[in-house]
Amino acid sequence: MAWRVLRHASATVGYADYVGVLDQAAACLPTGLEVIFLADRGFVHQELFQWLRRQQWHYRVRLTADTLIHFPDRRVVPVGNCSPPKSRPFLPPGPSPGVALGPCHLALAQLDQPNQDPWLLVSDEYTDLTTFDEYGLRFDLEENFLDDKSNGFQVEASRLDTPAALERLFLVLAVATLHFTSVGVGVVRLKLRRWVDAHWDQSMSYLKIGWSWLRQQFRRGWPRMPALWLDPAPDPEPAMASRRKATRPKPKWVVAFKT
Question: Has domain 15-139 been given CATH number 3.90.350.10?
Answer without folding.
Answer: yes
